[in-house]
Amino acid sequence: MNQTACKKGHLLILSAPSGAGKTTLGNAVLQRFPDILYSVSCTTRQPRAGEIEGVDYHFISRSDFREGIGAGRWAEWAEVHGHLYGTPAEFLNQGLDAGKDILLIIDVQGARKILDRYPQTLAIFIAPPSKDVLQARLESRGTDSRETIEKRLANAQQEMAAANLYHHIVVNDNLQEAIEKLVSIIKDNRSVEFC
Ligand code: ADP
Ligand code: 5GP
After folding, report:
1. Is residue 65 part of a domain?
2. Dihedral, CA atoms, 186, 109, 162, 138, nearest 10 degrees?
């Protein structure tokens, strides 16, 4: 991700079970590296309280999403917790061609596809300190129903099993420590010559 030496930018993926803190950590990364762009995904999920169209997600209908699949609009897409999520390909390709590094916060299925398609991607998995802490965070976030929380916890084990796909695993126990670890991994990676 060294922009002085490489014309093209690179992708950075953060994945984690729901509630492990990838949104919180992703925001911290964007604050610390203001030149990194964020890839706003499209989703068929309903907005949560406080989520903003075009900032958190592009909220679209299932039929528009399906049309996007046919039109090749997604660099990757996946069904997660019963909803469809996709990364707009045009945004990625334009950003990369302009030499920008881009943060994607996507699930493990999407990470697999992006790593195949963009092999120079840096992939980092955020793990919760324990299942109990994960549950407590989902409950304290206060944005999801009991049924949704149960579904997300049930999926967490499967997602944790895919952690070996990633270049690094960061345990998000103490928030400040997790941010520093993440920042240091990204800094190291950006200083490496890729081209
Ligand atoms: P995700 O995006 O992975 O679903 P969030 O970033 O929304 O997770 O975090 C879930 C909840 O846990 C939020 O309420 C957030 O403020 C809180 N949280 C995140 N990281 C920590 C941490 N290290 N310690 C305590 N609470 C945290
Ligand atoms: P949430 O509904 O909690 O915002 O996200 C649910 C899951 O979908 C998370 O694991 C999140 O990272 C993932 N996700 C968000 N956007 C995308 C995307 O564009 N592609 C894929 N594959 N997963 C996504």
Report:
1. yes
2. 80
